[in-house]
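Worked Example 4.2. Consider the chain below.
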Amino acid sequence: MHLSQLRRWILQSPPVEWAILHLRELLIGALRQGPIPQHVAFVMDGNRRFAKSHRIETVEGHNLGFEALARVLEVCYKSGVKVVTVYAFSIENFKRSKYEVDGLMDMAKVKLAQLLQHGDLLDRYGVSIRVLGQRELIKPELLADIERATNMTSRNGNAILNVCFPYTSHEEITTAIRNTVTDYSKPLPMQQRTFSESHIKHTLQSRHLSVAAERIRERSRSPSSRGASDVEDSTSSSTTLHPDSPPEDSLMSGKEADGSDDTGPNLYPDPESITSAVLNAHMYTAGLPPLELLIRTSGVERLSDFMLWQSHEDTEIVFLRCLWPEFDLWQFLPVLVEWQWRRKKNEEQERVTRSVEVSDVRAKSS
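Applying the procedure from the previous section yields the following structure tokens:
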């Protein structure tokens, strides 16, 4: 106990604080000399366990967790990270007791107010706050505070802080698919219609039906009974040749629906054109850099339904044993250094591979 107090006293002394501050600046400056991940995500886990192990109130543990977030944000933005995404509240937390859920919501309101109190940090690095998640589950008074926070920082354009609240990846992916289906269920306007295979097919079929219908009308004007039988033969033959052709009245309704002079029915986006890029454009993180580094504290090695879509083959996922209130530059620095080392190693391997391929091409050409 006395040793810990002595250690705390030494670390809080002005000369030691000055030395640590300048050492931090030196290390962050060294980090900026190498590649820096543009998008970093954190699962802030371990506030309760930290409070329990230190025999303090749970609320105090969460407050210390917020202080750790403020420290980490400054390190991230100062070193050159453009986007930071934090897992603040899971939709699964609503399954807890009403007392606990209300407590978490109140705590979120306090944390948001504290985050706005650090306005100098947000303005200094030009950080805009975005809240990602199912907003309809949030209480109106808390939602008003969220809107105020996002509006206050909306003009900042240098960096982004994504606060996932309330959020799960399953809900995000489901919403993205639902919105994609909605978009692909709307007819294309005339200027956006492409010369797809289905478009050409429908156009040829409609022209064939128009010619056949004109011939039928001409023959129907003849009083002979043979003409009537020819009408039946023509109708049956055209139906046999094109069993999948839409009837003439459906084509007309298509013209009337979009108000155009086109002879074909309404055209819709081709479902086969739906790619991962299309779905990505409907995610909460659309338009942001790909996730390059994901860190979870407390020693738990699972993602807990967080950033599942954004975690791709190049995403580094790191699980640390320290609890979130303990997380600072000294735990973050080794992770960043290792990430830089891996990135440089991969780039070197790519250069070697390209040089070998070029040598092979030159050898074959000679």
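The beta strands are 39-43, 83-87, 127-132, 159-164, 293-296, 316-319. The radius of gyration is 31 Å. Compare this with Example 4.1 before moving on.
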